[in-house]
Design a protein that fits this description.
Blueprint lengths: L2 H8 L5 E6 L1 H4 L7 H10 L7 E5 L3 H13 L3 E5 L10 H9 L3 E3 L1 H11 L12 E3 L3 E3 L8 E4 L2 E4 L3 H13 L12 E10 L6 H10 L4 E7 L8 E8 L1 H21 L4 E10 L3
Parallel strand pairs: 1-2, 1-3, 3-8
Antiparallel strand pairs: 4-5, 6-7, 7-8, 9-11, 9-12, 10-11
Length: 275
């Protein structure tokens, strides 16, 4: 698939998924830093993460996740497992998922030789072995490239390498997916109810009145600084999300005056910053 054809296919893609690979994360030896950063990188481009999965250094498990994601039409961002040690199995897993043999990539090989000279042979050159047909993802730190094939983009697990490489992917290969007018979430924080169960009818009502928005309810038991409350979210196109938030706020205030059983203290509705 050429870059031009890939861009056309990606313009209609609706999901981006993140695969984070490494036994050290699942064992707790290291703490993940990729998930929150990828969410941040996507958000500034008007994009959102549809799902994330943590995987061990297991070729069959990684291959299954890659095959499943690509079969579902997702763009996959994969962090980890493309080094030269025996437990780095991501390249083999992607090849297995796509039924592609692993072969030496000439441009990736030349970059490693340019960076390391005689020290490139033989071990570091293993990092130039990619599934057949892969293209490189430039590494600004040490020129040891990542790779992409179909809609699967693989970078190292080291954040200082992975994050600028993912930015390059997002701004070149995935530029057609950027959204200038992404969905907006309007939020309300409600204090003074005994629980979410008091407001189930209103929740269902806003969903029926505004089916184009994504509704969320996040209760909190409170702490020393803030009373028990519920944070409601209304996400979608700006005008529709704002209208849904207004509908809910209006009906909530009306409902609170009509129901003596709902309020455990004077009802307080705060409008939070949209995001």
């Amino acid at each position: 698939m050429t870059i031009e054809h890939e861009a056309q296919a990606l313009s209609a893609a609706c999901t981006i998924r993140l695969l984070i690979i490494g036994d050290e994360l699942l064992s707790g030896k290291r703490q993940d830093r990729h998930l929150s950063k990828v969410i941040e990188l996507l958000a500034v481009r008007g994009l959102a993460l549809d799902g994330a999965e943590f995987l061990p250094d297991d070729e069959s498990r990684i291959a299954e996740a890659v095959a499943r994601g690509l079969a579902g039409g997702a763009v996959l961002l994969c962090c980890g497992g493309i080094g030269a040690t025996p437990d780095d199995l991501t390249r083999q897993a992607v090849g297995r998922a796509l039924h592609r043999p692993i072969q030496r990539h000439a441009e990736a090989e030349n970059l490693i030789i340019a960076e390391y000279g005689e020290r490139a042979t033989p071990n570091r050159l293993l990092m130039a072995d990619f599934p057949a047909g892969a293209e490189i993802i430039p590494n600004p730190v040490n020129r040891v490239a990542g790779f992409s094939i179909d809609n699967c983009y693989c970078v190292p697990g080291f954040p200082e390498m992975a994050w600028p490489m993912l930015e390059w992917v997002l701004d070149t290969r995935l530029a057609s997916m950027h959204r200038e007018d992404p969905p907006v979430e309007f939020r309300l924080r409600v204090t003074g109810t005994s629980g979410e169960g008091d407001l189930l009818q209103l929740m269902q009502g806003v969903i029926e009145a505004h089916p184009g928005i994504k509704f969320s309810s996040l209760p909190s038991r409170g702490n020393g600084e803030r009373k028990r409350h519920i944070e409601f979210g209304f996400k979608g196109p700006r005008a529709e999300a704002q209208a849904a938030c207004g509908w809910f706020r209006q009906h909530l205030l009306v409902y609170s005056t009509q129901s003596s059983e709902m309020a455990v203290e004077p009802l307080l509705v705060e409008e939070l910053a949209s995001r």
